[in-house]
Design a protein that fits this description.
The chain is 54% helix and 11% strand. The protein is mostly helical and 199 residues long. The two termini are 29 Å apart.
Amino acid sequence: MRYQIAPLFCRPWTLNGISPNLIESHYEHNYGEALNRLNSITQELEALDAGTTPGHVIERLKRDEFAALNSTLLHELYFASLGGDGRKPPEAIANAIAHDFGSVARWRHEFVALASTLSSSSGWVLLTYVPRDGRLINQIASDHGQNIAGGIPIMALDMYEHAYQMDYGAAAARYVDIYMEAIRWDNAIKLYEQYSREA
């Protein structure tokens, strides 16, 4: 199998506070490299003989596949999460967020607080739908791991330095503020409605 690069969902020139150069570099280099790494690992896995290959080799490749596939998927979700007016979520998602977090403001404070805990390290902050419980949660995903078994991310914030350093240096908090103002809620609504219907 060969994974194909997804189109860049957001329009870099429309994002206030995030430069087109940063988005394009992030998309081409970080996402593109993750996709290339995933294709290389997939090719290695397809070529090996599981009956004669040592278990530790298969384990290493499967761990590498996990990280590369999650990096690819989370980057695609991140770019699809950008390009809107994030200040006020539409009623369709605002009601679900208020139901599961108490209020949109409380969700926002928790999401931003999680991002601030990663500003000195790296990882992802995700708004995730958990079908088992029929609810939304915020979560941190480190090392491109998704962490919540059965959880389906509907919005992603990349907190690796490559997502903001070119524009903001070490000022990760400013980048988070800009992200929160640029959330494209229609993508999150589409995913939420799709997965909550299937649950």
